[in-house]
């Protein structure tokens, strides 16, 4: 199955984001500190062969304001309005529009549907800022650094200010376009991975359904045929035993065999129907329940087996169907195992189920050297353990002091 690439650890992402924010804060604050001389009264500029700028008291206050405003870059992703407001304040004072552009970039990424409105307002504000720089005493910094005369409206100074504004706006537009293209590519990649996962899941589902169909055919054609033949033979045997007056015991045994063969055939048909259904359930199969334990024991006694049983059931209507069915199947398999490997020996059965105690199943039979001759593959014991573990229970199975014990405890489902 296709799996997505693991995401970066959140701590690493936070560190990277914090590093970018700190770098942006330092660069932007230092840049705007130089731009404080844009504001009239922020610094005293001396031209000549050795130009010099002396920051005034107002300039010191403006520097502190610059650093305070640039701290908003740490929340720019969650709250783009913070650098927008702080940058707008610096822009209104006349420092620079750098922080505004940072806020505009984050706002365009966060609110793409407002691109036209945000872009129009930004372009207009930057244009007004540039006009104020080139037409008034505001904006001495760049001209002074370049050795130009801003008061005389040097064409080079005017052109430089406009080119810088256009480049700044173009850079923001390019970054926004790149970010949106990257996000769209990421979304497309995620959608493609999800499509691959859904396709893989569908392939697995189809493979499981095909396997269920194969198992259903094998059960129906193989085991179903044998059980049908056995049920017919048992019915004929019952009729002949009754007609030949072979005794009530023989007739009763024939009826038990006939009934068990018919029940097994119904179970197989239910399982086959469930395997062939889309849901994979067993809607047509008889529902196994602890209520059937008494009938199971009665059938075994009718067939001549010695079964000593203590069954105490309380509140089983409030337990989960999965736990109810599992308890019955465990009892059924435990008795089958005892009758198979200890024919003729008495079997002791204890079933105790209550909400406050959970579900306890315990079967004990004496170990004997004689086998029933019925072949077994050890799947029954393994199945009991698997059922117990799957439902959060425990199972102790094995010989102890001349007896074979199956002791299973399940929680109250």
Automatic annotation (TrEMBL):
EC number: 2.7.13.3
Signal peptide interval: none
Source organism superkingdom: Bacteria
One Pfam entry name: HisKA_3
Keyword Cytoplasm: no
Domain Signal transduction histidine kinase subgroup 3 dimerisation and phosphoacceptor intervals: 211-278
Catalytically driven reaction(s): ATP + protein L-histidine = ADP + protein N-phospho-L-histidine
The name this protein goes by in its record: histidine kinase
Organism the protein comes from: Microbacterium helvum
């Amino acid at each position: 199955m296709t799996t997505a690439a693991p995401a970066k650890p959140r701590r690493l992402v936070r560190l990277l984001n914090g590093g970018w924010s700190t770098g942006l804060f330092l660069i932007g604050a230092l840049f705007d500190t130089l731009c404080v001389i844009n504001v009239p009264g922020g610094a005293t500029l001396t031209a000549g062969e050795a130009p010099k700028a002396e920051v005034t008291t107002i300039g010191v206050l403006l520097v502190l304001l610059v650093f305070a405003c640039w701290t908003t870059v740490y929340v720019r992703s969650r709250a783009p309005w913070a650098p927008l407001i702080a940058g707008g304040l610096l822009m209104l004072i006349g420092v620079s529009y750098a922080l505004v552009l940072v806020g505009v970039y984050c706002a365009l990424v966060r609110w793409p549907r407002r691109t036209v409105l945000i872009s129009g307002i930004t372009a207009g504000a930057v244009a007004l800022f540039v006009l104020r720089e080139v037409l008034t005493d505001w904006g001495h910094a760049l001209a002074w650094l370049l050795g130009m005369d801003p008061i005389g409206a040097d064409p080079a100074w005017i052109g430089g200010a406009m080119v810088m504004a256009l480049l700044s706006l173009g850079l923001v537009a390019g970054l926004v376009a790149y970010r949106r293209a990257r996000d769209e590519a990421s979304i497309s990649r995620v959608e493609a991975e999800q499509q691959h996962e859904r396709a893989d899941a569908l392939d697995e589902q189809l493979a499981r359904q095909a396997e269920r169909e194969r198992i259903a055919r094998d059960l129906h054609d193989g085991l179903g045929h044998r059980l049908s033949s056995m049920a017919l033979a048992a019915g004929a045997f019952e009729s002949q035993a009754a007609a030949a007056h072979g005794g009530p015991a023989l007739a009763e045994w024939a009826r038990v065999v006939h009934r068990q063969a018919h029940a097994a055939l119904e179970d197989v048909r239910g399982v086959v129907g469930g395997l062939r259904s889309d849901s994979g359930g067993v809607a047509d199969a008889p529902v196994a329940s602890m209520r059937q334990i008494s009938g199971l024991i009665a059938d075994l006694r009718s067939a001549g087996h010695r079964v000593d049983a203590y069954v105490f059931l309380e509140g089983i209507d409030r337990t989960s169907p999965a736990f109810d069915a599992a308890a019955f199947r465990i009892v059924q398999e435990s008795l089958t195992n005892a009758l198979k490997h200890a024919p003729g020996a008495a079997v002791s059965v204890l079933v105790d189920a209550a909400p406050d105690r959970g579900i306890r199943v315990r079967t004990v039979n004496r170990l004997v050297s004689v086998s029933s001759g019925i072949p077994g593959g050890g799947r029954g014991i393994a199945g009991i353990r698997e059922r117990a573990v799957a439902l959060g229970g425990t199972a102790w199975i094995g010989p102890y002091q001349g007896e074979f014990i199956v002791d299973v405890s399940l929680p109250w489902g």
